[in-house]
Amino acid sequence: MPRKNPTDRRLDGTAAPKAVTPDAATVLGKFSAATRAWFTGAFEGPTPAQVGAWDAIGRGDHTLVVAPTGSGKTLAAFLSSLDTLAAEPLPEDVLRRCRVLYISPLKALAVDVERNLRSPLAGIRQAAARLGAPVPDITVSMRSGDTPADERRAFARTPGDILITTPESLFLLLTSQARNSLRGVQTVIIDEVHAVCATKRGAHLALTLERLDALLEHPAQRIGLSATVRPLDEVATFLAGGRPVSIVAPPSTKVFDLQVVVPIEDMSNLGEPTDDLTGSAAGASKRASIWPHVEERVLDLVESHRSTIVFANSRRLAERLTSRLNEIATERAMMALERATDSAEPESLGALVARAPAQLMAQAGSGAPADAAGSAVVARAHHGSVSREQRALVEEALKAGQLPAVVATSSLELGIDMGAVDLVVQIESPPSVAAGLQRIGRAGHQVGAVSRGVIFPKYRGDLVQCAVVAERMAAGQIERCVSRGTHSTSWPSRSWPCWRWTR
Q1: Distance (Å, rounded) from C-alpha 11 to C-alpha 5?
Q2: Which terminus of the chain has a smaller tally of CB atoms within 10 A, N or C?
Q3: What residues pair up with 141 in beta bridges, in sequence order?
Q4: How many helices (H) and strands (E) does the chain have?
Q5: Residue 15 DSSP code
Q6: What was the pLDDT predicted at 272?
Q7: 11 vs 233: CA distance, rounded Å
Q8: Within this chain, do residues 141 and 127 fall inside the same structural domain, yes or no?
Q9: Closest of 242, 42, 49, 48 to residue 124, by C-alpha
Q10: 3-state secondary structure of 63
Q11: Which range, 109-113, 322-326, 333-337, is most confident?
């Protein structure tokens, strides 16, 4: 249920009013008929996070929404703004300015949000047309490091009602002549606030938001979204600069199915030495390794699920694991071909041998496509060194069910919508409990769905850390976001705090 800061005190020390649990019907009744008709037709009902967020946002409060992945936080933040934009008269072209600002810590997340906004925008337009109400004309713009120059110039001339951007691009906007397009901003949505609040990047964003408020006639309402962050009062201070904040943190009902899997009987006895080295290390002396066992088990999991995301802690490991999964899948397909050849009738043997290995993927237990050389492709890599175009192709292939698995680093850790992911595999202990929850939360990323994850330790010491992290993930004991040193509640202060994560 929505609540104010702990001890029922505001951040400035004054007493906060008692939190009252809002009613879903009452909150939905505050929306326009078109917005209400679209939402009730598309969903069974609002989640507790959405009810609390709409109640606080409707009062005009700065709002921090903390809820598990798949609870509809982003829609909760956007729907109120969309309803307001639809109800307000369209400004004259010469006065048209951006009114809603969405800040994403990742360019990929910004692109994903822009894509997912199309559904509610189209739904509200259609509902308004059916009800005979004025059809809203809400436009969306994007600004990031990947935005072409012509689109940037177009935004300066005719800005969209909603701007989706990153912290760095917002800073550049405020430093350029295009800042006049931001003079009408009423709402600022900061997604995945935990990814920036504990870093120097977050301190820079806090300063940028103050610069934005100085540009406006009235300070913009700030809405922060996160699934894994604590303590809430510290993050609320960061979000609104010490101003009063309503914190919406309903009890979590998210269910995680976690397993820590060791693919061998005894990690102190890895069996016979094997040459598992690749690249420049190929040809070195053979040594015992757990990697062949891990690779086989990961491929087993990929083949037994429709869609899988495999997380690695480094780009080098992601590329290496992707290559090995595809190689093993090809070997299995060839073995299936040999078995089919041995059991085939003589008259059909020629046609069977002529079939490419990729055509036997279904018989081998995989629905993977093949590359130009005929090798099976069950996985593709996804990380920051992959081009934007290639990342988009990989994401779409996984969503469409054309690619069984993606091996990623933190590039897919945040709230990017990857469709219906059945399983998340983590190689090695995740960097933190919060990162582990974000990654495993990519599976079952729907309201009420179970997020299933498997963690593979690399060595005995890593097994201990995996077990501890898994236990803390199940209990929701994420790391604290605290400031080093002291600072006053008047924000910003001269002694700017240096944020960091601690356990």
Answers
A1: 7
A2: C
A3: 163
A4: 17, 16
A5: B
A6: 61
A7: 8
A8: yes
A9: 42
A10: strand
A11: 322-326
Place of tokens 């420049």: 280
Q: What are the tens digits of pLDDT across the range 257-295?
A: 899 999 888 887 766 655 554 443 444 445 578 899 999
Question: Is residue 108 included in any domain, yes or no?
Answer: yes
- pTM exceeds cut of 0.85: no
199 and 146 within one domain? yes
Residue 8 DSSP class: G
Task: For residue 349, tell me if it sits in a domain.
Answer: no
**Same domain flag for 221 and 299:** no
Task: Report the C-alpha gap between 338 and 444 in whole angstroms.
Answer: 38
Asked if pLDDT for residue 496 goes beyond 50, the answer is: no
Q: Does one domain contain both 495 and 441? A: no
Instruction: Note whether 186 and 57 are same-domain residues.
Output: yes
**Cα 270–chain centre separation:** 36
The whole domain housing 313 covers 255-277+286-340+356-475
What is d(CA 69, CA 201) in angstroms, rounded to the nearest whole number? 23
Same domain, 393 and 471: yes
* 184, 265: one domain: no
- Per-residue pLDDT of 375-423, as tens digits, reads 678 999 988 788 878 888 888 888 888 899 999 988 776 655 555 788 9
Residue 366 has pLDDT above 50, yes or no: no
* 231 and 247 part of one domain: yes
pLDDT at 214: 94
Sign of the C-alpha dihedral, residues 5, 11, 14, 16?
A: negative
- Nearest CA-CA partner of 282 in 324, 240, 343: 324
From CA 73, how far away is CA 68, in angstroms rounded? 9
Number of structural domains, the chain? 2
Q: For CA atoms 238, 242, 248, 252, give the dihedral sign.
A: positive
* pLDDT number for residue 326: 94
What is the sign of the dihedral through the CA atoms of 114, 118, 119 and 120?
A: positive
Task: Return the H-helix or E-strand segment holding 450.
Answer: strand 450-456
Q: What is the pLDDT of residue 177?
A: 86
Going by C-alpha positions, the residue among 293, 372, 364 that lies closest to residue 334 is 364
Round the average pLDDT of the chain to a whole number and report it.
78
Question: Which CATH number belongs to the domain containing residue 426 in this structure?
Answer: 3.40.50.300
Question: Which residue in 3, 496, 469, 410 sits closest to 195, CA to CA?
Answer: 410
